[in-house]
Amino acid sequence: MKILFIASEIAPFAKTGGLADVAGSLPRALVKKGLHVSLVMPRYRGVARDAEVVDRFDIQLGETSYQAEILKTVLPKTSIPVYLIARDEFFDRAGIYNENGVDYSDNLERFAFFSRAALELINRGLVEADLIHANDWQSALAPVYIRAASAQEPKLARLKSLFTIHNLAYQGSFPTDDFLKTGLDWSYFKLNGMEFYDRVNLMKGGILFSDYVSTVSPTYAEEIQTHEFGCGLDGVLRQRYDRLVGVLNGVDYSDWSPDSDTNLPVQYTIDTVETDKIECKRALLKAFNLPEGDLSKPLFGVVSRLASQKGLDLLAEAIPRLISRGARFAVLGTGEPELEEKYNTLDQIYRAECGVRLEYDNRLAHMVQAGCDLFLMPSRYEPCGLTQMYALRYGSLPIVRNTGGLADTIKDVNTFPDGNGFVFYDASSVALQEACIRALTLYQNQHVWWSIVKRAMKLDFSWEASAHEYIKLYMNVLSA
Ligand code: ADP
Ligand code: GLC
Questions:
Q1: How many angstroms is it from 18 CA to the middle of ligand 1?
Q2: Residue 257 has what pLDDT?
Q3: CATH class of the domain whose range is 2-250+464-478
Q4: Rounded to the nearest 10 degrees, what angle do helices 202-209 and 141-148 cross at?
Q5: Number of CB atoms found within 10 A of residue 37's CB
Q6: What's the mean pLDDT when you consider all of the chain?
């Protein structure tokens, strides 16, 4: 089976969130199972400087012709080919999707060009593929272009497509006039097409014109068919319920494992966690400018985009109360200005208890995972969430809201004999606090605490099982 995996970010080349982690690790698992996978992403500024140019061609979108330059490299430590679509006018910029919080105004043009150029790799025979796996709105036009392929493009016309939704809230919505820039016939801009409230909606195109749609956890696959989580597209998703599947993301433990993590001052295993994890806590406190003080005080960690999705406003409200009960916090994140300001203020007020770093820093992300005792994810919605699974492996117990992939991976220790974290239900600061207080109480009983930590570290959320699910799904796509 030959697959072209199309993604707007792939770790370690470019990353703003979990999509990059998935794009950089799922293909490895698929290749291990015997599939042929190629990847394609835009060539952003500074990406894979040593990559070689392998082709140049023109892409016609409507009236406009754009030249694309194609470079080729490999996914680090593999021979999996990664094609980079270069056009400096579009991708040689300071940001990936936006700058200073403002989306680039030509994002439709940029990603229509990218999606069309990705398919051209197949059309011109650079890549052989039976199906394409497109991800999120940035590559949602690829399935639409396949559906629109003419008899003169037989290689494209016979291609099958899977479209994966990593986050339904980001839909790629643009003014109607921008539709011209897709180069598609206006017949695709209709009620049962890419039109959505008088705007062009790329996500809707991906959902309607792909052979199968998937999302990144079974619970989220159910949730997005409801009014509450459907972001307006629940009706469209219900229309495709028989072609909609939820496959849980996996973890790449070669990247996220405390026994081999070179970002940590010491590596530790299940056998050494009780004695060695504290060194990571010491280093984390220092990195977040918190005095070492009493190391037995529980430390809560956050690594997150600061977006309303993540429920961190609920946490900000709860922090003062939790500090009065002996908790300390290390918060790493960037995002919405109001949230950044809230956390900045907490950092100023609680200098000894709440350390905040408003940065994007991979090394610090690893240090938080290892150095905290409890990992917070109070998300309002969470398609899958990777960081709670990373936390388990680092022996930091997750506190999560019962939604999406969090509901599929974390079981409350007070409810389940094999629990691995703390779960709350209401999207409220009070419910979150209550879960944190339960965690603080359990933390007092160090004997029970370490037995749960060790159980959590043993859990296996590697890609093994999910890659198998994807292969089954690809077979369904091919026979669709
Ligand atoms: P999402 O994709 O919604 O942001 P995930 O949990 O799926 O959430 O993935 C987030 C990824 O981004 C993780 O690899 C996490 O470590 C990383 N990340 C998030 N914020 C930061 C940050 N400020 N610095 C470094 N890494 C971050
Ligand atoms: C999105 C979601 C996150 C998911 C990630 C990878 O960014 O917000 O929950 O883990 O994609 O699929």
A1: 6
A2: 98
A3: alpha beta
A4: 50
A5: 21
A6: 97
Ligand 1 binding pocket, CB closer than 6 Å: 17-18, 21, 303-305, 332-334, 360-362, 365, 384-387
Q: In sequence order, what are the residues at sequence separation of 6 or more whose Cβ sits closer than 8 angstroms to the Cβ of residue 296?
A: none
pTM score, whole prediction: 0.97
The answer on pLDDT for 151 being more than 90 is no
Q: Do domains 2-250+464-478 and 273-460 have the same CATH topology?
A: yes
213 DSSP β-pair partners: 163, 244
In the chain, what percentage of residues exceed pLDDT 90? 98
Measured CA to CA, the distance from residue 331 to residue 347 in angstroms comes to 9
Q: How many residues does the chain have?
A: 480
Q: Which mutation among 166, 254, 303, 331 tests ligand 1's pocket best, with the greatest number of atoms within 8 A of CB?
A: 303
- Looking at residue 58, its pLDDT comes to 97
Q: Please choose, from the candidates 462, 445, 367, the residue with its C-alpha nearest in 3D space to the C-alpha of residue 409.
A: 462
Query: Which pLDDT belongs to residue 101?
Result: 85
Q: Is ligand 2 within 6 A of the CB of residue 167?
A: yes
Q: What are the structural domain ranges in the chain?
A: 2-250+464-478, 273-460
Question: What is the arithmetic mean of pLDDT over 186-191?
Answer: 94
Which atom of ligand 2 lies nearest, measured to the CA of 17?
A: 7
Across 448-461, average pLDDT:
98
Fold of 273-460: Rossmann fold (3.40.50)
Question: Does 447 score more than 90 pLDDT?
Answer: yes
The rounded distance, in Å, linking the Cα atoms of 245 and 247 is: 6
Contact yes or no for 195/224 (Cβ under 8 A): no
Closest residue to atom 16 of ligand 1, CA basis: 365
